[in-house]
Amino acid sequence: MPRRVCVYCAASQRVDEHYRKLAEQVGTRLARSGYELIYGGGDVGLMGALARSVHRHGGHVVGVIPEALQEREGIAYELADALIVTQTLQERKAVMFTRADAFLVLPGGFGTLEEFMEVLTLRQLGYHHKPIVLLNYRGFFDLLLRFFEWLRRERFVPDRWPFAVASDVDEAFALLERALAPTDSSHADRS
């Protein structure tokens, strides 16, 4: 059974071209590494670039999209190998979470940040032990990481963050490979 990576990223069509190229690189690596993509089901923005790249390189795409978004023309990636339609955004997140073996966070807006914060919080509270990798491409998340550091200094969060940070695609996939490598203990901390 292929390992399944849930990728959170932007649906915005207005972002700079270099972000789209990043999504394409990630899609290529997912497919070539034998990972199945679990994502938000969109055919727009980084989401669409990511899914199309996975398919172009022979990978498997599972999209999860709320019915209200699927009904908007041109939003859903109808070519997905599986397109799961949910009633609500909350149900969409639950399906993505349940199906994933790991999470990879690319640049994105409020939705991406909200999804990252949810799986991060659930990991910190012990509801899962799935690896989370934040791809800090071109320092995109630097301000957020500085805020997290301040939270740590003020003792609002633990000293050890329950996620890993990568600065480029190669590092992100090295972290995923290490975290998803078989271990003797299924409960080993893999971040």
TrEMBL record:
Family per similarity comment: Belongs to the LOG family.
UniProtKB keywords: Cytokinin biosynthesis, Hydrolase
Species of provenance: Rhodothermus marinus (strain ATCC 43812 / DSM 4252 / R-10) (Rhodothermus obamensis)
Biological process per Gene Ontology, one example term: cytokinin biosynthetic process
Entry's Gene Ontology cellular component terms: cytosol
NCBIfam families: Rossman fold protein, TIGR00730 family
Key word Hydrolase present: yes
Catalytic activity: AMP + H2O = D-ribose 5-phosphate + adenine
Segments forming a coiled coil: none
EC number: 3.2.2.n1
GO molecular function, one term: AMP nucleosidase activity
Protein name: Cytokinin riboside 5'-monophosphate phosphoribohydrolase
Keyword Zinc-finger listed: no
EC top class, as a word: hydrolase
